[in-house]
Amino acid sequence: MRIREVGIVGYRSLRALRFPAGPLTVFVGANGVGKSNLYRSLQLLQGSAAGSLARELAAEGGMQSALWAGRRRGDQPVRIKLDVEIGDDAACFAYAVEAGLVPPTGAAFQFEQQVKEETLVLRTGRRPLPLLERRGPRASVTDEGGRRQALGGALLASETALGAIRDTAHHPEIDLVRRTMLDWRFYHDLRSDRASPLRQPCLAVTTPTLSSDGADLAAVFATLVHIRQDTADLDAVIDDAFPGARLIVPVPERTASFGLVFPDYPKRVFEAAELSDGTLRYLALAGALLGYRLPGFVALNEPEASLHPDLLEPLARMIVRAARRSQIWVVTHSQPLAQALAREGGVTPRTVIKRAGETWIEGLRLGGDFLDDEEEESEEA
């Protein structure tokens, strides 16, 4: 199920924003305009599904750091609201969570978030069906027979109902939404320094999807080479970036490893520990985007970091190739990469700006659509 729309209210530099998401979405903008907050909002939604939203916000410095810091109306509650629509035209799930400050008598730590409200609604073209509703510590769910029932026990202020439901057999739609959100993958910490896990051999375990830190990159390559026995796409993107180079993946024993052979040194295998930062990071992105099994959603935060400018065009082609198998978000401050993605993928990069202190997206209308989308529809008509 693809992400159709995202809404963010009251989070850091995002006062109120709602926008659609396509198969490939590209956000580009200068440093400090709030691009990463767009990316981070989906990580928080995933944390809600995992039951770790409180921990995620605490890691940011607590609610005092995560809340919108600008002016607000005095009659509005001080809250962060995140919502997402996933699915297709036939069936769409809308999930929303609101977190606010702990009241003086609340059973939570001083700067911990308190979940105020949660909803999950199924829309099928008929009357919307509420699957989950939460107000304060109490929540109710709709079972597979359409019956409403209370979710057993009171929820802690730091808990999300979506993460707390364990009876998946009687709530298959809720479980489907949660599993979909847990499957999302975020890549923003693919380190390439000398101590990077990318440079180390890893345990030889069949690995269809790269971990968020890339620590199992060698196992991802070994799975493609020795389990799937199909590296056509991988070979193509490596040759595109490093003409004539070949990926070498020995048959794993206890651990898996990899290296590159370059045309200038045809008899020399350069192990992962020897590769340049840019070469290694490009290979890590290849592992993220061309694995045996891609998640339904992949987000890349500044994937151009450490890459030579000559690698931006091959990177764009690799991202577009991956967007045929998965929904991709790219957050970048590189105009050349954004322009290459526009040429290769036929997408319109969305420019993120600061407007009166808040993060905004150029061309976005208050209704939650982009001006050029309407123009495209008129041309098709």
Write a concise keyword list for the protein shown above.
381 residues, alpha+beta, 8-stranded antiparallel sheet, 6-stranded mixed sheet, disordered C terminus
Question: Could you characterize what this model shows?
Answer:
The chain has 381 residues and is of the alpha+beta class. The protein is 29% helix and 27% strand. It has eleven helices and 19 strands. The strands form four sheets. Strands 2-1-4-5-6-7-8-9 form an eight-stranded antiparallel β-sheet, with helices on one face. A hairpin with a 2-residue loop joins strand 1 and strand 2. Helix 1 packs antiparallel against helix 2, helix 8 runs parallel beside helix 9 and helix 9 packs across helix 10. The radius of gyration is 22 Å and the shape is globular. The C terminus is likely disordered. This is AAA family ATPase. Pfam families: AAA_21.
Strand content: 25-35%
Q: Spatial order of the strands in the main sheet?
A: 2-1-4-5-6-7-8-9
Q: How would you sum up the global shape?
A: globular
- In DSSP terms, counting alpha (H) and pi (I) runs of 4 or more, how many helices? 11
**Content-based structural category:** alpha+beta
| Amino- and carboxy-terminal Cα gap | 28 Å
The largest β sheet comes out as: 8 strands, antiparallel
SSE ordering: EEEHHHEEEEEEHHEEHHEEEEHEHEHEEH
Total strands: 19
Mean pLDDT reading: 90
Rounded to an integer in angstroms, the radius of gyration calculated over CA atoms is 22 Å
- Helix % is 25-40%
Which regions have little confidence, pLDDT < 50, spanning 5+ residues? 376-381
